[in-house]
Amino acid sequence: MADLDSTISGKQFRADTPAATFAHAIKGASALDWGMQHRLARILDPGTGRTVMLAFDHGYFQGPTSGLERIDLGIAPLAEHADALMCTRGALRTSIPAATRAGLVLRASGGPSVLKELSDEHTAMSIEDAVRIGADAMAVQVFVGGEHESRSIQNLTTLVDRGYDAGIPVLGVTAVGKELVRDARYLGLATRIIAELGAQLVKTYYCEDGFEDVVAGCPVPVIMAGGKKLPELEALTMASNAVRRGAAGVDMGRNIFQSANPAAMLQAVRAVVHDDAEPGEAHARFVEGTA
């Protein structure tokens, strides 16, 4: 027979202690459902609100990009050093080990190749498959000012609605065409629209003048896009400037997988994002790791 007396006397209700509250540093996420907050905490460090994402989704519109010819050989070994991976479901299923511990941000929009008008996108993944694959977020391009601006916004809001049903956040990506200027005025407009329409994360480019205003005007985390390949010290300086002006981290692709030493570059980026290392110091680590 169960010893009910000792069980009862051993209970500790601590009626004089208020219920615990749990805080995190992920901007704008406190009112979200538990599952969505949990997934965001797999992408961004809940202690700092920062992330280092490794982007290799370029092939969905431009084919086998230099450095991504063999994702299984060039990218898979880097996964353990990234907070999150940004990729397509095809690349993930074929070329990344299922045992990876990194957060997963899956490209969920697509359509045209580099041979066509890039803004002519549609949603490209169902919420059911996002759940099946274990996605922590879905990424969608938003072409503010582009030819198919309204459709890309509809793609965003459709995925936001479906994401709420499943507890999966949406990363809205500001897609800047050749005719648009990557300045604070445009980036502030685009990031605010994306956040206002429900995205829980926004990815955008860095601008030297007014980037802190872009971040301040966006009520959800702003993640800096790496953009074109730069010399390593320049890329590290840009990443450092972005996080010091409020960015929630970086999503870098070409500046990592096209580097002379991708693993060393990824570690250097982590140093400036998570440890606030000076760019020169992080670059010295990169050079040491490459020697």
Summed up, the helix count is 13
Q: What class would the helix/strand composition place it in?
A: alpha/beta
Please mark out the parts with pLDDT under 50 across 5 or more consecutive residues, or reply none.
none
Taking all Cα atoms into account, the compactness measure Rg is: 21 Å
Count of extended strands: 10
Report the sheet-strand fraction: 5-15%
User: Helix coverage percent of residues?
Assistant: 40-55%
Residue-averaged pLDDT: 93
Q: Write out the CATH superfamily name of the domain at 31-222.
A: Aldolase class I
Can you put this structure into words, describing what you see?
- The chain is built from 13 helices and ten strands.
- With 291 residues, it is of the alpha/beta class.
- It has a domain at 31-222: TIM Barrel (Alpha-Beta Barrel), CATH 3.20.20.
- Strand 2, helix 5 (89-95) and strand 3 form a beta-alpha-beta unit.
- Helix 10 (232-244) runs parallel beside helix 12, helix 10 packs antiparallel against helix 13 (279-290) and helix 12 packs antiparallel against helix 13 (279-290).
- The radius of gyration is 21 Å and the shape is globular.
